Predict the structure.
Amino acid sequence: MHPKRKQRLLIISVLIGGVGATAALVLNALNENINLFYPPDQIVAGLAPVDQRIRAGGIVVDGSVFREIGSMSVSFVISDLDGHDVPVTFEGILPNLFGEGQGIVATGRLGADGVFVASEVLAKHDENYMPTELAAMQGRKPPMGNQVNSDPGVSY
Amino acid sequence: MKYIPDGLRRLWHRMGSPRWFYETTASWLPWLGGAAALLIAVGTVWGLAFAPPDYLQGDSFRIIYIHVPAAYLAQAGYILMAVCGVILLVWRMKLADMVMTAVAPIGAAFTFLALATGSIWGKPTWGTYWIWDARITSVLILLFLYLGIIGLRRAIERPEAAGRACAILAIVGVINIPIIKYSVDWWMTLHQPATFSVTSAPAMPPIMWVPLLLNVLGFNLLFAVSVIQGTRTEVLVRERRTRWVSELCLRERA
């Protein structure tokens, strides 16, 4: 290769390397802020700030969803399916994909009692796609949306 | 350089000539365009009308047939622009600058399409049109990079200087591409991780992914046709004072 071109290529490589290293350092420093939500294990470990607007994310535990009759309040438990559970209360309309076994991201405040009071609940979709018939064959439940179990006796 | 086959080296040297590019690609366009139209038509009709609905999302999952090809080409287009930037800066090949000029608005359009379709899908699926998670924010930055390159080129009057400035911005911005790709793995995001990867089976049955594959191929060809056509226009504009372009114009007029 022509020495002049070799030199230019070297300069460009150094440029890319430098910018790449800078970006890596900045992103690493901002790591905590780039995460959209706190997973259940961090909340249980007390790493999430109490009584500040944060997001919590996890899988809705099977059989944990209860709605008070005659109101919009609903309560459920989110988990990382690894032993860390966070109880959540919410008043409002749930997304259509909400359901037991589904991932969600909730915006709200963590109380001192460890209950997360959500003001917004978003459904998190995973990377798996499946036709309805196949899902039924595998015994997968369709999403619940707002059609959740009613139990006046249980509420957080 | 001695390990590179002769044929490839000849092609490389010919590509230095915008005129060669203009004359050679003329016959490619109808074939590429026809194949693109056919693939996209079959893939889209299959995907929208015949693929089964998803058990969770119902019919709204069908936006994947536009969203995934658009998002993929938005990134591939940027990489192409950065490669052209390197070729321009190192080898001073004029054609690379012309390709770079042509890619910018096309890549921006695909990026916008990816963001728009994602947003439309986000409302029924997630419950929101927009969220500032790492994936969505980094793709928005990609759109701004494209727009920045378009703006930068217009802002500098001398074409050579504009080309070099755009090349540097394109090369620096390519750092954003791995960030987009791995954002869903490095950080907690609302956007799901990739359904398709080179190393493992797709998380989707063939009846759903075959039409998507057709659309990805079709979008690739559509992108190629658009970039080639854009580059041809750029060739004519920049070479307008040369003899072969005046002769071409005279022939076209006759």
Observations:
- Chain A is about 25% helix and 25% strand.
- Confidence is low (pLDDT under 50) at residues 151-156 of chain A.
- Residues 72 and 94 of chain A are 10 Å apart (CA to CA).
- Chain A has two domains: 3-34, 40-137.
